[in-house]
Specification:
This protein has 171 residues and is of the alpha+beta class. The protein has six helices and seven strands. It is globular. The protein starts with a helix and ends with a strand.
Length: 171
């Protein structure tokens, strides 16, 4: 049986083999989304901070610390939180409110593995059609643009009045 497995893969081109290997890897990863009802937000704060330090290069250290301190008290309780897990380990999370994606962060160590896409697909199935992104975060803008979101508005500052323009996106 194992010989057939290797013979089958030997007939593929390198590109076909790598594509199949990625598909098998994604299949073997047990991604599941669960509602986060645990009030111990430490693991989500850690994921948020790693993601922000990788993607939000434009934020100052003071702003990162200010937002970090407000996550558990202000931001997380204001949304329905869902966590994408890989074999029981949180890989990222999304916060939904009404028809909006209010936050989506994937552990920076796991970027590019489909966790963000999985969370967006989940959000769309639950009625999300809007999301706001920092204008300076090009990777986030491109991520949502690939999924059909388009700019419908812009604010010169973020919700706290800081000089970080916000793009309003919608399907």
């Amino acid at each position: 049986m194992r010989l057939k497995f290797y013979v089958y893969y030997a007939c593929l081109t390198k590109k076909e083999f790598l594509s199949l290997l990625r598909q098998r890897k994604e299949f073997l990863c047990m991604k599941r989304i669960v509602k986060y009802d645990n009030r111990c937000y430490d693991v989500l704060v850690e994921i948020w901070e790693r993601a922000v330090r990788t993607t939000h290069y434009f934020l100052t250290e003071d702003v990162i610390e200010e937002i970090r301190c407000a996550l558990a008290t202000d931001y997380f309780p204001a949304v329905d939180l869902y966590v994408v897990e890989d074999d029981g380990t949180p890989a990222g999370f999304i916060g939904l409110a009404g028809d909006s994606i209010e936050m989506l962060f994937v552990d920076s160590r796991l970027h590019g593995r489909g966790y963000g896409s999985t969370l967006v697909e989940f959000a769309l199935k639950h009625g999300a059609v809007r999301v706001d992104v920092n204008e300076q975060n090009r990777s986030a803008f491109e991520f949502y643009e690939k999924r059909g979101f388009r700019v419908v508005g812009r604010d010169a500052t973020d919700e706290a009045g800081r000089p970080y323009p916000i793009l309003h996106l919608s399907l």
